[in-house]
Write a structure and sequence with these properties.
Strand order of the largest sheet of chain A: 2-1-5-4-3-8-9
Largest sheet of chain A: 7 strands, mixed
Largest sheet of chain B: 3 strands, antiparallel
Shape of chain A: globular
Oligomer: heterodimer
Radius of gyration of chain B: 20 Å
Strand content of chain B: 5-15%
Number of strands of chain A: 9
Radius of gyration of chain A: 18 Å
Helix content of chain B: 25-40%
Order of helices and strands of chain A: HEEEHHEHEHEEEEH
Number of strands of chain B: 9
């Protein structure tokens, strides 16, 4: 009993630094940020690693651009082949943790009939800035509680490198961005 | 034995927090009483007067020495280890080595060539945060005797030198302001927590119309008081920076909210 557990911990001790080292320098997953998923479970930012992701930042109390962001992401997903769709996770991240509770996030997912498998994450209060910064999302709370923010879909590869971005200006996917998404998913 | 352990732990914890408080006074945070404030920066929808909660701010910017102590504790922020996602090539480039400022740098001088991520991490390690832009503006409205000296045109005129060696607080012996804080109008600029919120004209200048949609409810900002040179210069500079950027005259200090 003792030997296997020693062996295991030795393995883990070896594996941990190897794992950290293999993360490319320009990966957004170097950031140590805490989030909560729509079930209220802790979800470390870096655990998004391992799959290509389509990521965007929004807030639930937003009625102009945010529905467009969701529709645009759906449109990207709809134009993928079923096999491609399985490879690409869609992640919506809140800019407004004070109001975007897991329940509010579940509600918005339901209201917009988002497909199965989308992740809705609410960052810890003091981690929103840093996540927005690595994704190059700028935002500012207005006095009425609405938020000015960059409306963008960011394409991350499975190691968290930013591979493409698409400024959202309507509900339809940008064809040039779609080509970049498909190229990444077809990649080596 | 097991029973006494928790109380010992509690005692130790209490001692540690007492020490932390003492250390806090040593590292020099100064209390800034909040109030209603007419910021010189105005976004299109905002009222002219904002209400600020009380906070505390470091008496001085973080020095090269302070930052090398931090690097010893969190070596992942050394210039030879920092991941590229957080850094630009100039990061701490003026230091002799990756962990020490070296002989060519004044150890007591404010650390510069630091990016927003490293500044943010330093303040978190202190149980603090970077100050918001308006908090800096509020504290920096004070001169040595007045909490709001902005009606003094001559004093304000001298702020055109902020961020240069001719700045009001650039000389080492410059007096503290009315809050006991030094160097807010110094030879260095300082990061703010909300630098990515400073959506100024710089973000829209020369853009095509479509760019207006880049921001949800496209923003417009202006200055309530374009003659507030220190604030205008600082805003324009910070709003143009990416968080990974570094400058030879850009450092930081930390702030704490008042519980």
């Amino acid at each position: 009993m003792k030997i296997p557990s020693l062996f295991l911990s030795a393995l883990m001790a070896l594996a941990a630094p190897l794992h950290a080292q293999s993360l490319p320098g320009d990966s957004v997953y170097h950031l140590h940020a805490a989030t909560q998923d729509a079930d209220g479970q802790p979800f470390p930012w870096s655990s998004l690693r391992g799959q290509a992701r389509l990521v965007s930042m929004f807030y639930t109390n937003c009625h102009l651009m945010c529905p467009l962001i969701i529709e645009n992401a759906k449109s990207v997903q709809n134009q993928l082949a079923p096999a491609e769709r399985k490879q690409l996770g869609v992640v919506m991240i809140s800019l407004d943790p004070a109001r975007d509770t897991p329940a509010a996030m579940r509600d918005v997912a339901k209201r917009h009939r988002v497909p199965e498998g989308w992740q809705f994450l609410t960052p810890a209060d003091n981690d929103v800035r840093a996540i927005a910064s690595v994704l190059d999302v700028r935002y500012r709370f207005r006095q009425d509680g609405s938020i000015n923010h960059t409306s963008v879909l960011v394409l991350l590869d499975s190691d968290g490198r930013i591979r493409a971005r698409s400024e959202v200006t309507g509900a339809a996917a940008d064809p040039a961005f779609l080509i970049q998404v498909k190229a990444l998913l077809a990649g080596p | 034995m097991k029973r006494t352990l928790p109380s010992t732990v509690t005692l130790l914890l209490a001692m540690a927090s007492a020490l932390a408080v003492a250390g806090d006074a040593g590292s020099g945070y100064r209390y800034v009483e909040g109030g209603d404030f007419r910021s010189s920066v105005r976004f299109e929808e905002a009222t002219r007067v904002v209400r600020l909660a009380s906070f505390s701010l470091m008496e001085k910017p973080v020095s090269n020495r302070d930052f090398s102590v931090f690097l010893a504790r969190q070596p992942q922020w050394r210039r030879d280890r920092i991941p590229a996602v957080f850094a630009s090539p100039g990061y701490l480039g003026h230091w002799t080595s990756a962990d020490m400022p070296g002989d060519n740098v004044d150890h007591d001088a404010p650390v510069v060539h630091v990016n927003w991520y490293a500044a943010d991490a330093y303040c978190r390690a202190q149980g603090a945060r970077l100050p918001r832009f308006v908090e800096w503006e509020y504290a920096a409205a004070a001169d040595a005797t007045r909490r709001d000296a902005r009606s003094d045109a001559a004093w304000r005129m001298r702020q055109v030198n902020d961020g240069t060696p001719h700045a009001i607080d650039a000389a080492p012996g410059s007096p503290a302001n009315a809050y006991g804080i030094r160097g807010l109008h110094g030879a260095q600029w300082e990061w703010s927590e909300d630098v990515a919120s400073l959506l100024g004209d710089g973000d829209r200048r020369g853009q095509q119309d479509g760019e207006a949609l880049r921001y949800c409810g496209a923003t417009a900002m202006s200055f309530n008081d374009p003659g507030d040179y220190g604030v205008v210069k600082r805003f324009v500079l910070l709003s143009a920076l990416q968080p990974a950027a570094t400058l030879g005259n850009l450092g930081f200090r930390c702030a704490r909210s008042t519980p």
